[in-house]
Amino acid sequence: MNRKYLPTLSELIDRLSIAQLKEVFIPEHKEEYAKEIQDIMHDIGLEGIDADLVRAIVVLSQMNLHIWHNESNYRNGIKEGNNLELTHGINGIRNTAKNKIQEKVGGRKDYKIDCLAAEFKDWEISW
């Protein structure tokens, strides 16, 4: 198979992390970013790396970052723009990412996965 992106592996992973952010934060182009993510994962796979594992790690780190900022702002009295219900839903995405990592390496999974409320569907990941 031919590579669809020519950058180095580190650049592919960097681009994957950016496209993953865009998939969540620019919902009007969610399908285009999901396609870009699949193309990048294809090329990561050609490098002999498990692209699904890399993506699960990227998703996990991004969800942790958002939860961190949201809860930190809330604790510091910044209520505007912080939604603890969203944090709860994102924690479900975080747990799904951890389970995907465990599928690859083996071991215990967490079967309590919360779902996103309807108003947070933009946060859904195109696994």
Provide a descriptive summary of the structure in words.
This protein is mainly alpha-helical. Helix content is 64%, strand content 0%. It is built from 4 helices and no strands. The protein has helices at residues 9-25, 30-46, 51-75, 84-105. Helix 2 (30-46) crosses helix 3 and helix 3 (51-75) packs antiparallel against helix 4. The model has no long low-confidence stretch (mean pLDDT 89).
What is the terminal-to-terminal distance? Answer: 22 Å
User: What oligomeric state is this?
Assistant: single chain
Major sheet: size, sense and barrel closure? none
Q: What's the total helix number?
A: 4
β-strand amount = under 5%
List the helices and strands and how they pair.
Blueprint: H1 9-25, H2 30-46, H3 51-75, H4 84-105
Helix pairs in contact: 1-2, 1-3, 2-3, 3-4
Please outline what is shown here.
The chain contains 4 helices and no strands. The protein has helices at residues 9-25, 30-46, 51-75, 84-105.
What are the salient characteristics of this protein?
single chain, 127 residues
